[in-house]
Input
Amino acid sequence: MGSTLTNPFGTALALFRSKLGGNSRAVFWCLNHDKKLVEGCPPSQKRLKSNGKRQMLARRTKSTLRGGWRIALLWFASASALWALKPDSASGRGTNIFSPASTPAKSISDLSAFVLVITGIIFLVVFALLFYSVVRFRARASDGGREPAQVYGSMQIELAWTIIPILIVVVLFLATARVIHAIQDAPEPPGALDVIVIGHQYWWEFRYPKLGIVTANELHIPVSDLDHSTPTFLRLLSADTDHSFWVPELAGKTDLIPNHPNRMWMDPQREGVFLGQCAQYCGTQHAKMLLRVSVDRAEDFSAWVRAQQKPAVEDPSAIAGRRVFEQNACMNCHAVGGTPADGRFGPDLTHLMSRATIAAGAAENTHDNLRLWIQNPSAIKPGSLMPAMKLSDADLDGVVSYMETLR
Output
């Protein structure tokens, strides 16, 4: 019922607790020169033991405080760096949830900041109470090993730690419900742009029903300013499995579920290219199911619409490649406006070369990448559902040349 310690002088110390008259006290036992256990140790040995305990407690206290401050500083520095980061939207580099560019994203960002402030205050209060308790009620040599006074039942404390958390949860719930209602139940104003988004494994299909445009992976929408608000409303569908449409700077995540149409909207207030991706695991190439949203000025968007409404360019120099395309299985999956190709399983290729990327953002739209993608899709996107057509070099070059005329 005790512990045996060895001091630098080779004397064994044994500490026992005993009950005397209902009170606890520390009794020190030592080995005398005849190696017999006797009660009462020399003062020097008692001081040695007390000093050792004080030093150990002091080291533990300092270590705890240093660790807590490091965590707090790291958290604060990380949050500040992310908040201050401004992505280059014009070039479409990266995403940043702390740089909203539309009303839904701004509402979510403000709510996140509010929640972060509340939880930060809770962290500081708890850490301050912990710091106070560690310092104020630390063990002292004068305590004689006695336990501190035990408090059982306090109506004030129990009411405090019950009512305060309830109030915090209610405030957070009401703030969240208000933002959800404002985003999900927003009415569609006249003049809004309608786009149907269809998620496929592993690419995006965008249909503009009022404009007669079908494209893939790169969504073009007009900028919306305060004087001329032109929001874009998206109707979300899935052709196979669950997907999730997420462009962090424009709106929150919204799922695409088979046989369950969903909706979302955005009104970007600055131009640029905003990156997003599927945020719901949908299969092997989920991580490379990327998308780009180009927010254009009104005149630039109108020019893009006119170009997309035109049929495919007929270039006599690429007639051989077109013949290979139409005689193989390519036309069973892909559509090219103004030709017999009218497939629906793959992206519409009518204006393929107007897009900056191929394979749903997995590679830049260059000659070499396009050739490799047609020759062996798995080289760029392992697990892609597009089959390798095993074309001869001559046929492959002809198809690539034909694809490069589709602008």
